[in-house]
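EI: anyone free to look at a 564-residue chain?
SC: sure, send it
EI:
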Amino acid sequence: MIEMPIDSLQADPLEDANRMLADYPGAACAVDARGRVVAVSGSVGALLGESAGELAGDVAAVVAKALRTATIELATVSLPGSAAGTLLEITVVPWRDGGAVVLTRDATMERNLRSALVDSRLRYKDLVEISSDFAWEVGADGTFAFVTPRGALGYQANQLVGHRPAELAADGKDGELVPFQATRRMEDVEIWLRRADGTLACVLASSLPMIGEDGSWRGARGVCRDVTEERERELALSRARHREQVMNVIMRSIREELEPTRMLTAAAGAVVKVIGVAGCGMFRFRGDEGIVLGASAGVELPEAELAEKVGQAGDWLREASFIWEPWSILAVPTSHRHAINGAFCVWKAADPDAWSGDDRVLVSDVANQIGIINEQISSHERILRLSRTDDLTGFLNRRAFYKEELPRRLKRLNRSQRTAALMFIDMDNFKLVNDVHGHQTGDEAILCLRNVLVKNTRPEDLVSRLGGDEFALWLEGGVTEDVVIRRVTALIKACDALRVYSGSPDKPLGVSIGVAMYRAGSEESVDDLLTRADEAMYEAKRGGKGSFRMAPMPGAAIAAEPAS
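SC: here you go
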């Protein structure tokens, strides 16, 4: 408003008002003591009401108050009927003779700008809150000057303001907290902070430096987003992929082998190589033998002691970890179709925290495969046992004895330069037992002979049922001819137990035995040895049965049974 000294005003109030209004840049008017418009300036149409000389409602109310109180009134009013919602700031100044001057200023643009600014700030605030977990500002002194009102990392905002970011650092140092000291724009810098409850949080920080007009660093401001769960998921996925890769290596080594026992050995070697343990052992249950070590690799531990300790720790039914100086042992049971069939053990240098959760999961995964292999080995052994043994007696059958065991024993014997003996045993008058008493009694007689042979042999001896009533007995261990004669004599005597199954008293059930001594280095073939023993047995039968004959060494005559 233009200030004019009172003494400079002209006598005519209307003329003074017109002169003053003419100099005002906006819309203005003068009113008399009754509030009627007596002079106007600028575009004041919006100020006027429907009747000539009257002001619009809201404007008239402000003017009436000023006239009534004889004081300057300030107000902001919206003009009725304006499509754009025009907003006016009105100043009413009391004037001469009870009148007033009404000065206006269009505040529409200012209001719109203010509204737009508020909207922009709210929008920015919403976007910041959506895109981040908390916003912050660090002052020139390196302490938090601002933190999102809702706080951060479990702290209230007032618990952080005034404190240094280093107090949140995982290691208590701010060397890694570069975003809080930013001197340039930084985006998605990964840092680790400690929450209020002491747990660690991985956050992505983006920040901008605050630089003063003189170029000095005034602090930094930025936002942080907690990505701990994402990192944990990524880490879990990475660990799962690692376990899958390890299992692929182990399974590939297993698939390259066809024989189950070799599968176990290959798996043990692969485990030590790819899991990073000092050693491993794979146990399995093997019938009457109990728990046996199927395969091992790396640093070996005493089998019996390890089996005992694993059994004590986990009872073979559950996972167990224990210290056996200088090793930390982790043992997991193996199973097939929910039946425990062994255990898988790994060991590394003794450490109470030697086995992580990932280690345990990986070892359990391997144990699942070992359980399948253990079952395959057991099945293979059952099939092999059935193919190599006689159904009735459980002794080796003819093929296993002739084609596998005897040739292997001879090769081993030749390396040791020791003697051995082969006995051919044939039951006397066995056909009469079947004819008189039937085949069931015949089977009982064969089982009786089986029991006699078991009682009169050592674990290292080899017994075979060649078929029908024919048996073979291989004696080794450096036996001499005198020892063999004593043993065969005792065996014939023990076979008196067969007489109860005889078909006739004058044709008692007994055995005739042919014995062939073998000397290492003689280069005698398996077939020649068998032929000598067989001929000696038939010579014993021709000599009256119930006796034995010693087969001559190649080129000599058969020796008769010594007189008793």
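EI: Residues 357-388 form the longest helix (32 residues).
SC: 👍
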